[in-house]
Amino acid sequence: MNAPAEKVWNFFNAPEHIVKWGSPSPDWHTTTAENDLRTGGKFLYRMEAKDKSFGFDFGGVYNEVKANQVIAYTMGDGRKVNINFTKEGGAIKVTETFEAETQNSLEQQQSGWQAILDNFKNYTETNS
């Protein structure tokens, strides 16, 4: 994404920003976000369908946090996620690697996580 590393990091992790971009589609939203961004810290986001037909908590514990570089965490169900923030010229590449769950196809999961990252990119590039 075309934004400075510090802005990308802040928008990715600050609760007041997470609630603005943390959804896979326009009919979903993140209603609340709590984030204690440090190794051993916890996070908890509430994601809901806007029509209130479904919602869930998404949370976990941070295993590693290196500002502007790496976030690794374990979700509440024990699956691991690694996020790398890499400088590429004047841009920042955000790469998320996650352990898949068994209820949905891998393609559905990848599509959902990518849609959230796309929302994050759009939000970060269009807001100051």
Report on this structure.
- This protein has 128 residues and is of the alpha+beta class.
- 29% of the residues lie in helices and 40% in strands.
- The protein has helices at residues 5-13, 15-21, 106-126; strands at 28-35, 42-49, 55-66, 70-75, 80-88, 91-98.
- A six-stranded antiparallel sheet has the order 1-2-3-4-5-6.
- A hairpin with a 5-residue loop joins strand 2 (42-49) and strand 3 (55-66).
- Helix 1 crosses helix 2.
- The longest helix is centred in the last third of the chain and has 21 residues, at 106-126.
- It is globular, with a radius of gyration of 14 Å.
- The mean pLDDT is 96.
How is this structure best summarized?
This protein has 128 residues and is α+β, with helices and mostly antiparallel strands.
Distance from N terminus to C terminus (CA atoms, Å) equals 14 Å
Percent of residues in β-strands: 35-45%
Give the overall silhouette. globular
The number of helices is: 3
Write the element-wise H/E pattern from the N-terminal end onward. HHEEEEEEH
What's the total number of strands?
6
Radius of gyration: 14 Å
Give me the secondary-structure category: alpha+beta
- Low-confidence sequence ranges: none
Q: Which percent bin holds the helix content?
A: 25-40%
Give the strand line-up of the largest sheet.
Answer: 1-2-3-4-5-6
How would a textbook summarize the main sheet?
Answer: 6 strands, antiparallel
Q: Mean pLDDT score, rounded?
A: 96
